[in-house]
Amino acid sequence: MIKILAVFTSAFLTIFSNCLMAQRRGNSIPIPEYKNPTTVSPSMKIDPDTCVITKHSAIIRGVNISYTTRTGTMPIWNEDGSAIADIFYTYYERDNINDRAKRPLLISFNGGPGTASLWMQIGYTGPRMLNIDDEGYPILPYGMRDNPYSLLDDADIVYIDPVNTGYARKTSKDVPDALFYGVNQDVKYIADWINTFVSRINRWKSPKFLIGESYGTTRAAGLAEALQSREWMFLNGVILVSPTELGIKRDGPVSAALKTPYFAATAWYHKKLLAPYADKKLKDFLPEVEKFTIEEFIPALAYGGILPAEKKAAIAKKLESYTGIKASVYLNNNLDVSPWLFWKELLREEGFTIGRLDSRYKGIDAKDGGVEPDYNMELVAWNNAFAPAMNDYVRNELGFKTDLKYNVFGSVFPWDNNNNNTGYDLGNAMRQNPALNLFVQSGYFDGACDYFNAKYNTWQLDPNGKLQNRIKWEGYESGHMMYLRMQDRKVATQHIRDFMKSSIKYGIPIKY
Questions:
Q1: Topology of domain 2-71+84-248+384-503, per CATH?
Q2: 62-118: pLDDT as tens digits
Q3: Cβ(442)–Cβ(407) below 8 Å
Q4: CATH 3.40.50.1820 residue spans of the chain
Q5: What is the sign, positive or negative, of the torsion defined by CA atoms of 240, 243, 248, 254?
Q6: Residue 493: enclosing H or E segment and its boundaries?
Q7: Would you say 9 and 63 are in contact if contact means Cβ atoms under 8 Å apart?
Q8: Residue 68 in contact with residue 157, Cβ under 8 Å?
Q9: 226-271 pLDDT per residue, tens
Q10: Quick one: three-class SS letters along 411-422?
Q11: Positive or negative CA dihedral for 392, 393, 398, 402?
């Protein structure tokens, strides 16, 4: 059921709604009436403070859930109280909830940097999802359907698009890009924005969780500390979906070796292994590869050019048995086969390349030679599925209509990666806040943010091991967006429900 609670009677119409509760930062004057962008927008601009409200219902875990959606833009303020940009957001709030102080608020974003939040919004946790098959491949016709595993039955959710993604834009070309495009700049302005948003929707008392995917995990890790130290907002949990390296150092032999378990998982999937590994279940096979990586491969690489030839040959042979890449290829690359070469080499004899973000996907190149694929097949497939569905959904179901282009990917470069300490910041936030827990989700076939590097993160952000009982990691037999596979979406969303429930302890003092 979809009912747009706005009547279009002119080019820009006022919506009289609860959205009017907020006030401009540093100014006691109420925010002007919210405007609806129209289908025709000759200036290609959107008011930085606008909101469309719609009413819907969806079947989630067999129950008909009614909910209200607020879709719009909300300003990013400078120190003078002027709007310098906006964030585009979609906020889903379940109806008929009497006590929102006990209802979790889930704050969601994707990564890039430079991509909008559509991936998790219509692929993972939102109440509506795009048409895909059970393995996550696009199917026609494009469109949307209810997401039976949405988290909306248990938590209200806001999806946010940072500057130059989705419909979010700077208010003027004169506003410097450097205010937004960087690890620490991104964390700072989004933390400020979250403070304002939580105040506007009156959710300071609610349990709060961040969920970020890919580069969004860098953002989430940094925000956990920034919200706590600069906004006085303490979280109950952080969920990292396919995390990056989080600024945690791993150079030389460590960096070269940690990708090996991902190689092994992918080779297992494509049936490139021989007995006894070909006959094992994935989760029974990988612990052996992980142990080899830490205890044998990293030390061997550390020897560099003085590693004895017979030892080097033995390591290469073992790598071949685990990863399906010939020992000669490892020897020709000093045991360090790059991911790009792996994606090109594994199925070279069959005439295929494999995907970077999801190595279950196969592609074909113009020529079989070379050391890396021509393109990422999985990303092309995902754009094919997500872009039409999101553009139609935001306009025709959520009622947000504008001529401005929805940026699935927007330019945010040059991006300032200096002083990326977000993983260490997350560890500090957890040590300072005994109520803050961490949940990490990884796809075994993700070659961009591989699962073993995600495990390594959890070890390094907790160097003395005192946080391990508050850190949980789960792996899924899928790729970067593991939720596109129906079975994994069902299991992974339940894992998040369980994590949120276990992270909220009413009536228990927060202390060590």
A1: Rossmann fold (3.40.50)
A2: 999 999 999 999 999 999 999 999 999 999 999 999 999 999 999 999 999 999 999
A3: no
A4: 2-71+84-248+384-503
A5: positive
A6: helix 486-503
A7: no
A8: no
A9: 999 999 999 999 999 999 999 999 999 999 999 999 999 999 999 9
A10: CCCCCECCCCCH
A11: negative
